[in-house]
Amino acid sequence: MAKAARVGKKEEMDFADEARSWPGIWIGEKLPRNGDYLMAFADAAGNALEPTMVVDNKDKATVAEADVRKLVRDARERKLPVAVLVTRDESQLRHLDRQRRWAQEDGVWLLRSTRSWLPRDLDVLRPVFERMRAEGPDFLQRNAALADEVRRTLVDIDEVEGQLRKAGTAIEKAQALTAKYRARLAGLCDSAAAA
């Protein structure tokens, strides 16, 4: 159990260091209990803007429903409208989590993300957070169609990213084959010249 706690603490510290390097993001110190960090967009002076989010890092085989409920409870206790569940890798999110990456759970908007997706997700959600700041945290409750569109957008962007990975792999294979055949033809040319 102590080893799991050390791994979890290291994950949280790594995340905080990484998040502090993102432009326009404010991240608070490690929370003493119930969640890992408070995070928000930052103004030009580096001060946190509303809405503040509670961020919980998970680095385990699969996120459980209990993890989601605990994070939502933590956000409600702090009276925060947004919570973020961050895993190290996409495989740690359940299929349900990947399909409902932005959804309302018990009055709290929950973003399910990964370390690599989070900067992109926050950038996509920036206009939504600006409207929440201007019109209040219940902005999305009054605009259910917009909330649904945000959810679909995140899923679509994940799919595009997956296709880009496949394309990148195909390009690497094509480059390797080109190099292989270039070397083979050069060898054939050298042996033909020697003959």
Structural class: alpha/beta
- Going by CATH, the architecture would be 3-Layer(aba) Sandwich
Coarse shape: elongated
- Main sheet? 6 strands, mixed
Strand content: 15-25%
Number of individual domains: 1
Mean pLDDT: 84
CATH class designation? Alpha Beta
From the alpha carbons, calculate the radius of gyration and give it in angstroms: 22 Å
Secondary-structure element sequence? Answer: HEEEHEHEEHHH
- Topology, number of strands: 6
Oligomer: single chain
Helix content percent band: 55-70%
The largest beta-sheet arranges its strands as: 1-2-3-4-6-5
CATH topology tier name: Restriction Endonuclease
- Ranges where pLDDT stays below 50 over 5 or more residues in a row are 1-7
What gap, in angstroms, lies between the N and C termini?
A: 71 Å
> How many helices in DSSP terms?
6
Task: Write up what this structure looks like.
The longest helix is centred in the C-terminal third of the chain and has 51 residues, at 144-194. Residues 1-7 have low confidence and may be disordered. The chain has a six-stranded mixed β-sheet with strand order 1-2-3-4-6-5, sandwiched between helices. It starts with a helix and ends with a helix. With 195 residues, it is of the alpha/beta class. It has a single domain (2-144), classed as 3-Layer(aba) Sandwich (Restriction Endonuclease). It has helices at residues 2-20, 65-77, 95-99, 118-135, 139-142, 144-194, and strands at residues 25-27, 37-41, 53-58, 82-87, 102-105, 108-114. It is built from six helices and six strands, in the order H-E-E-E-H-E-H-E-E-H-H-H.
